[in-house]
Structures are given as structure tokens and as C-alpha cells.
Amino acid sequence: MSLERCNNIGDLRKKAKRRLPAPVFHYLDGGADDEVTLRRNTDAFEDYELNPNYLTDTSHIDTSTEVLGVKLDLPVFLSPTGMSRLFHHTGEPAVARAAHKYGTLYSLSTLGTTSIEDVAAATDGPKMFQIYVYKDRGLTREFIQRCKDAKYDAICLTVDVPVPGNRERDLVNGMTIPPKFSLGSLFSFAMHPEWSLRALFDASFDLANVQQRKDLSVAGQPVSVMQYLNDQIDRTVTWKDAEWLAQEWGGRFLIKGVHSVHDAKRAAEIGAHGVMVSNHGGRQLDGVPACIDALGPIVDEAGDKLEVILDGGVRRGTHVIKALALGAAACSIGRGYLYGLGAGGQAGVERALTLLRNEIERDMALLGVNKVSEITRDFITPRC
What we know:
Blueprint: H1 9-19, H2 22-29, H3 36-43, E1 48-50, E2 65-67, E3 70-72, E4 76-78, H4 91-101, E5 106-108, H5 116-122, E6 127-131, H6 137-149, E7 154-158, H7 168-173, H8 183-190, H9 193-201, H10 208-211, E8 217-218, E9 221-222, H11 225-232, H12 239-249, E10 252-258, H13 261-269, E11 274-278, H14 291-302, E12 307-311, H15 317-325, E13 330-333, H16 335-367, E14 380-382
Parallel strand pairs: 4-13, 5-6, 6-7, 7-10, 10-11, 11-12, 12-13
Antiparallel strand pairs: 1-14, 2-3, 8-9
Helix pairs in contact: 1-16, 4-16, 13-14, 15-16
């Protein structure tokens, strides 16, 4: 199936599944425990129905909006996702260039395989960096200063990883640290020689934002970059530390991983500009509500104090419309574009954005609105 014959994000997922070795695809596709939240993130959109208005002039559809002071051509931007080069050798720069081409924001993960500086060099488009508060506050300060020097537009602090989630697909497929591949996994790598040979001989595959640090160690023993970062996860981090980070950065600041009214209120109190309603794509605590179900109450609490971003489960233009109707400023997508990356590199990401853009434009016309700002709760009803 060519990219042009991929008619939706689901088709891109199928194509990525064929192109990637099984352990890599399931690392991308999987969630925690029984994957209840993973499934519900998308399925729960079906619990909301749209109420269109007709006999409205919709000859001029404007999908643009403003998020964090940045004008976006779409009410969708690209979430931070780790190790993008796993899914295509062009990695983060390809995704950032696609985002710029479509007039939207790209978010770089701390666990990216391209450095803060190299992503900034790859595109002049708007950029955000995803960060953690590490045990070594010097490492966190270093990231902040590098983002300032590279002129990133915003930072988002991920708060839902006090410990890694229980991702059983990775255990089954051996995507662990260190890797423990089964014979079946090794066979899958052998059946995908293009991916495997690039991975084998690509010396640049590393966690670029930390690789430059010398003498990485835990308890005095040399370790890999990933082992070092896992050890840096700080379970003592509190809202006081989040406030410290916001002050250190001094610019547009989001909290990613907010899933409750309580946390939205605290985010406003420490000076965050917005929150990303996210459960880490169902990869952390299983059994929490779908993001779309958590959205409405958080918007009600945020009022005009925070910009609220929906981050989770978006696969269709109607999903974006429903989130906007419930009060989201925009949506962000992770797997939605990674399926495209795995299916065909930058062209695959562009295909994912084309599909969503076309769906959003069509759905706005069918809903009876011309602008994103016109999409209100009058257009949505929870299904009884």
C-alpha cells in the first residue's frame, strides 16, 4: 500500500506494522498492563456526539488558531515522543520539517535521538522541548539553557513518570534495558533487513541530548545513557519543583500529564501557561479515564487561567472537533504521526497531517462553522 492509498491514520498504522520489526512496532503501539486506557483514549470519543448547524455559509474554512502565543495553521501539533529514529532513520528532523511545512508546532523529547540544537537547525518552525525535573538539577538547568540558546518557544514538564509504566508488550518482545530478544524477535529483525542494517551500522543512534555528558555513572559504575536517565527519575519531585522549573525557564510553560481538576488548579497556581491533558498514551497508569473524558472538568476549572491541550487518542478530524467543542485550545498527537513516520519517514508524517487537515476542514464545514473559535459546547452532546 502506497502512502497515497492510506486513507486514514489506521491505514498508516497498518503500513508501519508491515515495515517495522515486531519489537519496534509494539514498542510504539503498546500501553501499560491490560491496555485499557490505551484503547479507551480513542474509543471514548464515540461517547460524544456532534450537533451540526446547517444553512450556514462555510465557503471559507479557517483552521488556524493560537497556542502559547504561537500562530498555528492547524489546531493540532506534534507531541514529544522518545527515540523517533527507531521508527525511521530520518528521525526527529524529518518530523520537525513536516510540522513546519504544515504550519504547526513540533515538540522534542528529552529522550530524542536528535539534539536540541540540531532540531533547531533543521527548521525555523515553532518548537517546544519536553523536560523532566531530574535528581541532578544541573542536568535540568543545562537543558533549559540550551533551549534558551536555541530559541525554543516553550517547554513542557512531564509529570506522570515517577516510575516507568508496566509495558508488557516490551517484556514479551525483549525491548528492555538491556534488550532480551527472543528467537521470534530476532527472526522479525531478520525479516526487516533494511531497518536492521541501518540500525546495526548507524553509529549516530543515541539519546543525543544526554550523550554529550561525560562519565555517566550510577553508584560510581559506568552505565548506558538510558540507564543513567532511568536512575535520574526523581520520585521526590513536587509542585514546588515544577514552580522552580517554570521560574528557571521564564517563558511559555506547560505541564504535561495533568488528568485531574486538582492538578489543573495547582498548575495555574505555580504560573503554568497551560496543561496537556494526557495519560502518556496509556503507557503509565492503566485504568485512568480517557483524556477526552477528563477534558471537560479540567477546562471548567482552568477557565481563562490556562490553555488546555488534549493529548491522547486522536486519530480523526472529528476527534479534534470534539476536543475543541469541549474547550481544548488544540490537540496534540503522538502515535498519529509516528505511524506515518514508520510508514514512510517525513512523507509519512506529512500524509498523517494531510489526512487530519482535510478531515478537520471537511468536518468544520459539515458542522456549520468557519473558524476554530466558533466551535463551542453547543455543538457537542455526551451520548446517553
